[in-house]
């Protein structure tokens, strides 16, 4: 595909996947239309960048369907003044979208090949409000907390108390995906008010992705 074909594919993705499914934030729609997802993918995946498919990268991790990414970002209600933690930056596509909305973005990645590509992409795009750290994805990043938003866009079995405690105590928000079984997850919004946390179900997500593998704690539902 050439540049014009990719541009047309982005426009069709917004028209056919996002808009009919209640993605109505004009800034988010514009970012999905303009940011070149194919530049964050290897050659074998570029051609499916704007299809309605998950795109696997490494170790059962990858980019969710475009609609799911847009739903998660829209539900996060990120504002220009917000400081955001993105746990699991992959190669930088979602991080780039988020960085265009917030004030400061901390991105965690610990897979060597992904980390190298992430750093290369962010440097190439000259994005100045992103800081990237090689950190354990299970624990968040206490050193730079608190965060107005914590964003986790691959499923996990459960979120640790230590990550929730890194939220701003005055209505900090966590967007996460809870793995229900091997191929099915629920996305949730968790809001912190001092030492109280309220949880709101967002959407169903059908994927076999998982941010990290922790099978000893995992119980499949019937």
Label this structure with key terms.
222 residues; 9 strands; 29% helix; alpha/beta; 7-stranded mixed sheet
The radius of gyration is: 16 Å
**Strand element count:** 9
Task: Count up the helices.
Answer: 7
Multimer state: single chain
Distance between the termini: 43 Å
What strand order characterises the main sheet?
A: 5-4-3-6-7-8-9
The major sheet is characterized as:
7 strands, mixed
Tell me the fraction of residues in β-strands, as a range: 25-35%
Helix content: 25-40%
Mean pLDDT: 95
Structural class: alpha/beta
* H/E element order: HHHEEHEHEHEEHEEE
The shape, in one word, is globular
Low-confidence stretches: 216-222
Please sum up the structure shown:
This protein has helices spanning 3-18, 26-34, 43-46, 66-76, 93-99, 112-125, 161-164; strands at 55-58, 61-63, 83-87, 104-108, 130-133, 149-151, 170-181, 184-193, 196-206. It is α/β, with parallel strands linked by helices and 222 residues long.
Describe the structure.
- The radius of gyration is 16 Å and the shape is globular.
- It has 222 residues and is an alpha/beta fold.
- It contains seven helices and nine strands, in the order αααββαβαβαββαβββ.
- It has a seven-stranded mixed beta sheet with strand order 5-4-3-6-7-8-9, covered by helices on one side. It has a two-stranded antiparallel sheet with strand order 1-2.
- Helices cover 29% and strands 26% of the residues.
Blueprint (SSEs and pairs):
Blueprint lengths: L2 H16 L7 H9 L8 H4 L8 E4 L2 E3 L2 H11 L6 E5 L5 H7 L4 E5 L3 H14 L4 E4 L15 E3 L9 H4 L5 E12 L2 E10 L2 E11 L16
